[in-house]
C-alpha cells in the first residue's frame, strides 16, 4: 500500500522526454521486480522480436497493466516506454492478424496516452491503424472484430483525441468520421459500440475549430449525437471497461 500510494495523482509532465526512475537503496525484490526499468526493456524486446501471438498479447497486456492508473511507477513506465522507443512497437501491433494482439495493443495505448507527450505521439502515428480496425468503410477485406475489441479501440481513440486537436484532425483525415457515424446509425452494432462511438463523435464536435470543415464536408450536428434507438440489443456485455487487462 505504501509503495502504490507514493506520488499518487501527480500530473504528467508533457515536456519530459527522459525519465529517471527513483534511485534504490536496496535491491528490488518480490512484486517490485515487476516494474523496474529493466523490465520495460524486456517487454519492448519481446514486442519487437517475438512472432508468437500469445507472447505479443501478454507483453502488451503487461504494459497495459503497469501503465494503468496514477500510481508512481505507472507514471514512470509511461515515460520510459516513450524513451525506449516502445510506442511504435505497440502501435505496429494494431495491424496484427490476431484479434487478441490488436485488443491488447489498443488497451496498452489507451493507458499510455494518459501521458500528454505519449498522447501527442500516439495521435500522430497510431490513429490511422486504430481507424482501420473499425468496422465499415471501403477497406478490403473488411475486418470482423468482436464487440469487446471494437469498444476497446473506440475508447482508445477517445483517450487519444481528448485535449488533442491534432489527433482529432488526423481522425477526420483517415475516414474516421465516416466509420464512427456508420457505427452510430447503421442499426446493426451493439449498444456498447454505439455509446463508445458516440463518445468519440461528441469529443470531435467539441472542437469548434473542426465544425466548419466538417459542415463543409456535409456533416451535421445530429451526426455527432448518440443514436441508441438503432443499437442492436442482441449482444451482451456490461458497460464497464477495465483499465487493466
From TrEMBL:
It is found in: Cell junction. ARM repeats lie at residues 85-122. PROSITE patterns: ARM_REPEAT. GO terms for biological process: cell-cell adhesion. InterPro entries: ARM-like, ARM-type_fold, Armadillo, Plakophilin/d_Catenin. One of its GO terms (cellular component) is plasma membrane. The keyword Repeat applies. Keywords: Cell adhesion, Cell junction, Repeat. The keyword Repeat applies. Residues 1-22 are annotated as: Disordered. Belongs to the beta-catenin family. This is CTND1 protein. It comes from Fregata magnificens (Magnificent frigatebird). The gene is Ctnnd1.
Amino acid at each position: 500500500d505504501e509503495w502504490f500510494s507514493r506520488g499518487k495523482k501527480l500530473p504528467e509532465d508533457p515536456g519530459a522526454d527522459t525519465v529517471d526512475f527513483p534511485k534504490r537503496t536496496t535491491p528490488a525484490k518480490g512484486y517490485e521486480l515487476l516494474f523496474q526499468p529493466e523490465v520495460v526493456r524486456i517487454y519492448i524486446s519481446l514486442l519487437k522480436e517475438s512472432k508468437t501471438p500469445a507472447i505479443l498479447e501478454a507483453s502488451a497486456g503487461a504494459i497495459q497493466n503497469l501503465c494503468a492508473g496514477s500510481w508512481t511507477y505507472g507514471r514512470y513506465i509511461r515515460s520510459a516506454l516513450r524513451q525506449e522507443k516502445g510506442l511504435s512497437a505497440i502501435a505496429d501491433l494494431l495491424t496484427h492478424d490476431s484479434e487478441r494482439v490488436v485488443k491488447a495493443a489498443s488497451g496498452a495505448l489507451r493507458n499510455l496516452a494518459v501521458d500528454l507527450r505519449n498522447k501527442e505521439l500516439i495521435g500522430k502515428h497510431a490513429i490511422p491503424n486504430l481507424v482501420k480496425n473499425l468496422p465499415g468503410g471501403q477497406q478490403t477485406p473488411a475486418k470482423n472484430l468482436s464487440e469487446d475489441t471494437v469498444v476497446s479501440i473506440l475508447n482508445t481513440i477517445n483517450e487519444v483525441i481528448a485535449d488533442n486537436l491534432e489527433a482529432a484532425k488526423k481522425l477526420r483525415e483517415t475516414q474516421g468520421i465516416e466509420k464512427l457515424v456508420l457505427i452510430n446509425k447503421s442499426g446493426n452494432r451493439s449498444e456498447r459500440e454505439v455509446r463508445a462511438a458516440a463518445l468519440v463523435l461528441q469529443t470531435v464536435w467539441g472542437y469548434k475549430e473542426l465544425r466548419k470543415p466538417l459542415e463543409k464536408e456535409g456533416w451535421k450536428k445530429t451526426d455527432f449525437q448518440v443514436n441508441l434507438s438503432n443499437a442492436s440489443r442482441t449482444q451482451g456485455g456490461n458497460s464497464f471497461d477495465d483499465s487493466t487487462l
